[in-house]
Each structure stands twice: as structure tokens, then as C-alpha cells.
Amino acid sequence: MPSTLSTHSIPDLKEIKALRHHLHQHPELSGLEFETSHTLRDFLQRYQPNEVITDLGGNGFAVIFNGKDSDAGPTVLFRAELDALPIVEQNELPYTSIQKGVSHKCGHDGHMAILAGLANLLHQHPLDKGRVVLLFQPAEENGAGAWAVLHTPAFQEIAPDYVFALHNMPGKPIGQVILRPEIFAAASVGLKVQLHGKESHAAEPENGLNPGEGMSELIQAFNALVRDPHSFQDLTLLTVVHARLGEVAFGTNPGFATVMATLRAFEQEDLNRLKSLAIESVKLVSIKYGLRYDLEWVEEFPATRNSTEAVELIEQAARYLNMEITQAAQPVRWSEDFGHFTNRYPGALFGLGSGPDQPQLHHADYDFPDELIPASASLFYRIAASLLND
């Protein structure tokens, strides 16, 4: 990384890296981030925040640092995520996850450490005016956290003027800032379909109604929905992620089937159209095979749409720190519930390269690179300073 990234030195960097390792070793799933939240709140007390607001959307909390004249300027929010993933870690590290089947494979442990570094900087170098809010959000991975935080009365009283977040991006040069105005991350939603027939003895299938053929045809119909790219404005995907037919019982002709799929699109209009087409496919298959059906939409993420002003503020801060900048030609395909924030407040999500040889997000051998912590905290601090220093 360029040496100028050390413009804002972080006195407690060693302790903050150790904090990241502790969080990595003790991951918690979405909605269950009790110890993660407690550990962070205890650690951040050393920086004497002006206010701590707890119980935001569950285990979330906000740490607030006032400027010297807190009434004179805007409120700027930076967000990190608390939750980990249900993935068995393959790394052999001094701080490998001790929670069976749970690990930080998206870098949220690093994102939390970055905000801890920002807290260190705000304590060492108070800003002239306004307020900086460090939001530690629960349940990003299932899309429930941001929505829950936004609907918590205590958060509504914060009323930020700007919101910012970053996500590390493997495959990109380490420390590279990846920007994009308008849509940065895709919209997505999960679909659960239950097909109901009638069970019978496997020796008498004529006395039951096996939904297996309907399940198979529905999977093929789902896959066909996105084959013609001209049907949509931009990239639109449907991925069948799970299918199940009855129970494992050789003596039973099954009476139910489950099909689960993830729908995603860069444009919300495309996602809405894909949802309608998927519902129509379920109806047609159910009628054809005489099945009943149930539909459930889960884990809905809106597209993350960046404001032009917020992107410009990030770019200016990155240039000030002499960080490498690139413009993303396309939105990223993965989804982020930070879109709920940018739908309501001016703000932006941006990427920060975590290395060309870094394993990809959600891979079992991924680990957040500690060297990103000082650069990222400095970049966040510079964004805040550009708005809150005279």
C-alpha cells in the first residue's frame, strides 16, 4: 500500500488486530450476536464515546462521537456488520473459529475492527462539529438486520445526514477503492415453494399423488426464466439452491416437495418481473399435476443505490490519502442490506480490495487481511473530516 495511508496513525492498532482475531475465533450467526456485541461495547469504552445506544434491531448498537460543536454540523454514520456465516472453516490459524460450523467468511470481523480503528482516531483527533455514528448492525447475512435497525425508534432519533459502509473485495489489489455511482450491489430475494400432493404406500403409488414430476418440471421452468437476456433490462439471475422430495423412506410414496431459489437482479424492476414469472411457473406446474402449493419470500435485499455526492466524498478522501481508485463497470452480483439505508439517506457502499490472491467471500478458506484495518479506518476518518472539520 502507498506509505501515505499512514496519514492517520492508529495508536491501538495492535490491540485492534487482536480484537479482530478474538471476534474471528468466536463467531455468531445472524440474530445471535450476543457476545460479539458485548465484546465490542466493552472494547470501545476506552475511547470515551459521548453516547452508546443499544438494542438496535436486536443485538445492534451505535457508538456516537460528538464534534466540538455537535449542534453545528451534520450527523455522519459508518456501518459494520456483526454476524458470521454457517460455514465450516478450513483455515489453520492461531485464531481459527471454535464455533462448530460457524465462521467469519465475509470479513465482518475485519469490518468491525475497522470501526474500532475509526473510534480510536475520533478519540485522538476530535472533529470540529457534528456527530459521527458508528453503527454495529446485526443480521446482515439474512437481510433482516438493516430493516430492523431502521424500524427501531432509538435509531430513528439518530437521523443521520449521510451513511457510509465498505465491503472488502477479494481479487482486487489490496487497498484499492472500488467506486460506482447509482447501483453498487444487486437486489435479491429467496423463494421457498412447497408442493403438496398425497402420500401413499410405495407399493401403491396410484393411491397417492407424488409431486416429484412437478418438482422436476418446476426446476426446469425456473432455470428457463433467465435464459433470454432480452427479457430484462440488465443482469438477472435465478439460482435453484435446494430441492427436496418427501422423506428418506423406501416404503413411502412422497406427498410433498420443496424447491428453493435465489432471485437477483441489478434493477428492481427486473427483480419484480422475475418474481412474477416465478409465481406464474409455480401456478402452471401445480395446475398441470393437480398439486397445492405454498409460497414464501425470504431474505429480501433491495439494490444498494449510491448517491453521487456520497461517492464523490469517498473519492476525494481516497485521493487525499493517495489510495488507488477504480470505477466498477458493473454492480457486484452479491446483495447487501445496506441498500435499506441508502434508500432512506444519502450515502454509499464501496469496495476495498483485499488482495488478488485472497480466497473469495463465503469460501471456507477466506480470512480478512489485517493490513486493511489502518487504511480503511483512515479513509472513513477522512470522509468524516471532510464534512465535519471547518
Structural features:
elongated, 390 residues, 25% strand, single chain, disordered N terminus, 4-stranded antiparallel β-sheet, alpha/beta
The number of helices is 10
Tell me, briefly, the overall form: elongated
Global structural class:
alpha/beta
Order of helices and strands: HHEEEHEHHEEEEEHEEEHEEHEHEH
Describe what this molecule looks like in 3D.
- The protein has 390 residues and is α/β, with parallel strands linked by helices.
- 31% of the residues lie in helices and 25% in strands.
- It has helices at residues 13-25, 34-44, 108-124, 145-150, 153-158, 212-224, 268-289, 308-320, 339-342, 372-388; strands spanning 51-56, 60-66, 75-81, 131-137, 162-169, 177-179, 182-185, 187-196, 200-201, 236-245, 252-253, 256-265, 292-301, 304-306, 325-327, 347-353.
- The strands form 4 sheets. An 8-stranded mixed β-sheet has the order 1-2-4-3-5-16-6-15. A 4-stranded antiparallel β-sheet has the order 10-12-8-13, covered by helices on one side.
- Strand 1 (51-56) and strand 2 form a beta hairpin.
- The longest helix has 22 residues, at 268-289.
- It is elongated and about 80 Å long.
Give the secondary structure arrangement, pairings included.
Layout: H1 13-25, H2 34-44, E1 51-56, E2 60-66, E3 75-81, H3 108-124, E4 131-137, H4 145-150, H5 153-158, E5 162-169, E6 177-179, E7 182-185, E8 187-196, E9 200-201, H6 212-224, E10 236-245, E11 252-253, E12 256-265, H7 268-289, E13 292-301, E14 304-306, H8 308-320, E15 325-327, H9 339-342, E16 347-353, H10 372-388
Parallel strand pairs: 3-4, 3-5, 5-16, 6-15
Antiparallel strand pairs: 1-2, 2-4, 6-16, 7-14, 8-12, 8-13, 9-11, 10-12
Helix pairs in contact: 1-3, 3-10, 6-7, 8-10
